[in-house]
Structures are given as C-alpha cells and as structure tokens.
Amino acid sequence: MRNPMNDEQARLVGGWGLAMMIRVHPFADGNGRTTRTLINLILAKAGHSTIDFPSDSEIYKKSSIWSAFKSHMRQVRAELGWSLKNGSIPPKGYYVLLRESLEDEIYSVSLDRLSDRSDIVGIARALAEVRENGF
Fold first, then answer.
1. Least confident among 11-15, 39-43, 100-104
2. Which DSSP helix (H) or strand (E) runs through 42?
3. 35 part of a folded domain
4. Which candidate, 28, 38, 34, 23, places its Cα nearest to that of 99?
5. What is the pLDDT of residue 85?
6. For residue 12, what is the domain's CATH number?
7. DSSP of 80-132, one letter per residue?
8. How far apart are CA 64 and CA 115, in angstroms?
9. 46 three-class SS
10. How many domains does the chain have?
11. Tens digits of per-residue pLDDT, 50-70?
12. What is the pLDDT of residues 68-97, one digit of tens each?
C-alpha cells in the first residue's frame, strides 16, 4: 500500500497536472476548467483541502497561480520553440518535439524530481497561497 501524500506533495502533483494539461491542451474549450477540477481531485483524493477557484477568469488570471503557470510556459516555449497563441500554427516538427518532451516527462516523473523543479514548486506554492488567502 502506498504512503499517502502530504499536502506539499499533493500540491506538487496538482501543479504538475496543471502544467501537463495546459502543455498538451487537449480540448478546443474547457482546458482551464478541466485542469482546475483535476487539481482539486488530486488534493481531495490525497485528503487535503481543495481550492475555491473563482468563476471569473479575469480574477484567476491576476493570481499567483497564473503567474507561476506563465513562468512554466516560458520554460516550455524556450524548450520547444513555440507556444500556443490564438490562431498560430506550430512550426514543422513541433509535435515530434512535444511528444518526446512529454515522454521524457512522464517516464521520469517522481515526487523527488518534482520537488527539484522550480517551475512546479512555484505552482505548488501559489496553490497554497491562494488556498490560504483567496484570490
């Protein structure tokens, strides 16, 4: 039987989930809502308090979570040479790079590695901050 995750570990996994869902961006609409639900599912299943996300996306986009997420996306853009923009088309070979990046990420992920990543730690800290202080 696995050891339960403490709150910090659950937030790291939630932060990683946010980063991966938005990186893949699987849906035409609803990626953010789905990701916020995923974060709360991870926290709840680990037995920790969930986050009351605002329904107003403009409030969310002014939060520390959004800022930490954008920092992660700058890293992704530097790594892959492109990021999702309204109507833009990825360069040739982008999806091969994305697949390779995701394979590396998925096959090497562990709580120890997540705790060493400043981008994921930043998202996890932001999750704690908004849970404590609100948006």
1. 100-104
2. helix 31-45
3. yes
4. 23
5. 67
6. 1.10.3290.10
7. HS----TT--PPTTHHHHHHHHHHHHHHH--HHHHHT-HHHHHHHHHHHHHHH
8. 18
9. coil
10. 1
11. 999 998 888 988 999 889 988
12. 988 888 888 888 788 776 567 888 888 888
- Does 102 reside within a domain? no
In whole angstroms, what is the distance from residue 5 CA to residue 8 CA? 8
52, two tokens:
């009351």
Q: Let me know: does 82 contact 94? Beta carbons within 8 Å.
A: yes
The answer to the question of residue 95 being in a domain is no
Give pTM, 2 decimals.
0.83
Supply the range of the domain harboring residue 114.
7-76+110-133
**Domain assignment present for 1:** no
How far is 48 from 5, CA to CA, in rounded Å?
A: 9
CA dihedral 53, 13, 105, 73 (to 10 degrees): 30
Read off the amino acid at residue 14.
G
Sign of CA dihedral 125, 73, 98, 78: negative
